[in-house]
Amino acid sequence: MNKKMNNKGFSLVELIIVIAIMAVLVGVLAPAYTRYIENARKSRDVSAVDSVLTVVETSLVDYNARGGSATEVTITVPHTASATNTISVECTVDSDLEAEIAAVMGTYAIAGDWEVTSGTNAADGTITATVNNGSVTFNNAATNTVVTAMETYSAALSGRIDNVVATP
After folding, report:
1. Largest CA distance in the chain
2. Are 128 and 72 in contact (CB under 8 A)?
3. Concatenated DSSP letters of 74-128
4. What torsion, rounded to 10 degrees, do the Cα atoms 151, 155, 156, 161 define?
5. 67-124 pLDDT, tens digit each
């Protein structure tokens, strides 16, 4: 009896082994992938805030060089992601400057929830840009906000913003 074996597939045991190996790989790689995505979101948010600071700084200096007299701009940074939570700029002294900054700035949204080191959700942050003798300084007077969390995450952003502790 000469039977010709015609094996054209995988056995059930081989398929179960492959599935088990894939499950182990997914279990090991999923947390790393999640951390990678979160770090990418944080980097995007920090980059957006840094871009807004650059636009505000350039616009303030340029506006005042053209004869304007704006001395302060407030930048509000939301702490959670949603369709309406975009970084906003307000200039109470001059609405023309505010419109100019908004036109150049475009729309920068925050990608994810920011948490402060205490483990509680951060609040919206405020950065104040102040012009003094042609130079612009950025101040963050509040603690426990998205801005302080971003500064903790990014040394470059932290070096750009002065933290002013409000005195009661």
Report:
1. 104
2. yes
3. EEEE-SS-SSS-B-EEE-SS-HHHHHHHHHHH---B--S--B-TTSSBPBPEEEE
4. 40
5. 877 888 888 887 776 655 677 788 776 777 888 887 877 767 676 666 655 545 567 7
